[in-house]
Amino acid sequence: MKGDSKAMQSLLGYVWTNWEDQLDIVRQSAKVVFEKVLQIHCIVIKAEYDEGGESTSNLFIKSLMQHLLILNWSSRGKFSALTSCVRHVGYYPFLEAKPCLPEEVIQQLQEQAMSCYASELYCALLSSHKEELGLGDLQPVVRNTSSLIGKQKDETVQVLENPESSEDTTLLQTPQNEFLKTWIQPVTKAMCSSNKKLVQNIVEVCTAGNFFLLFENSIIFKNVCH
Fold first, then answer.
1. Is residue 114 part of a domain?
2. DSSP one-letter code for 171
3. What InterPro entries does the database record attribute to this sequence (predicted)?
4. Which residues contact 157 (CB under 8 A, 6 or more apart)?
């Protein structure tokens, strides 16, 4: 009953066929089936590992991730499936498979119909990363926080892109700052872009709460947003 078994592959076939259905109840059914396949696979693999067997979990998960990542972002099912995967396997397998994933997900916010799915996936990714890093308070460690006050948006983004190039303010290499750079940089870049629709949708998502609440204490993010 592992993910690569005939029975599980048959269930995945149902998922791929129905996750774009016009009826919401059918799409939700496909999502539930997908999550159950992941759960059953993880349970079976854990049981085998506990009994001293060799784990092949990575092979199935890697194959599943590759299948999902090559799909077009116009697919709503891609977002929900990736979100489910993140909650089961964590953030780092996705970072290894596609380092630019945070940037790509943020760009999908420019489509109003996809913004809710994109923000859910982005939130799941950064929440997993935060948990794996063991972070609580997300206040960044900086050598001179006062120099951030009054900086222009493009200057702030430049600091995030190349911290060592800044003479006034340099982010120290800490897990907190790794997290902030990974997740704030795509947002600040998008908000400073000329794409008005993207900026507007990001503001709407932030206003609704969502991922903004997960790093609202960031000094850099506050200066970029205000």
1. no
2. B
3. tRNA_methyltransferase_THADA (IPR051954)
4. 185, 188, 189, 192, 224
